[in-house]
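Hi,

I'm pasting everything inline rather than attaching a file, because the server keeps stripping attachments. The sequence lines come first, and each chain or strand is labelled.
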Amino acid sequence: AQSVTQLGSHVSVSEGALVLLRCNYSSSVPPYLFWYVQYPNQGLQLLLKYTTGATLVKGINGFEAEFKKSETSFHLTKPSAHMSDAAEYFCAVNPTSGTYKYIFGTGTRLKVLA
Amino acid sequence: DGGITQSPKYLFRKEGQNVTLSCEQNLNHDAMYWYRQDPGQGLRLIYYSQIVNDFQKGDIAEGYSVSREKKESFPLTVTSAQKNPTAFYLCASSITPSGRATDTQYFGPGTRLTVL
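And the predicted assembly:
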């Protein structure tokens, strides 16, 4: 069965520092990959997604992620953290065959320190 | 503006009562989904519907029921058979009936259900 692992349920960074949130998936066939952000008591908002083509994907709010097939990873980065980035981030995969149901990671809560 | 609405935002229920959560979308999407979110567990799929009058069980369907009589609406009923219903419930939709793997799922703002 496919799975998604987000390393680190809580990550703290200083304002202006690099943000790195890790996501690894297990799949014999590369799935489609998504990052979502969730602010407290709100729904999820799509940050970016990888389907095909360029492996470095740029999203909203200055975030980007790189698909690395050899490492089965799709880590999310932002060069300089802002206080408004504090939220929970979810990585999700969607298999390229079958019933096309999302599989979500357990989330990483990002804290930005002033 | 197009989007997904969920109501109510907060819901309190006594043990033994059924309760229905509303989900409406005006995005003209064919597929709709219900997820349950618990702290530290991510999102788990309860039910999904790819087209009107059809729906399938997800990973944790026991104690829940749904209907899809209209394209725009996908209400979720939490029945008294659900042993631990206190959670945050999220509704989502995506554009195509087949729910293609590339399709983005768009989420509503959620309903927080608390059983007293």
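The CA atoms of residues 61 and 76 of chain A lie 12 Å apart.

If the labels don't parse on your end, tell me and I'll reformat.
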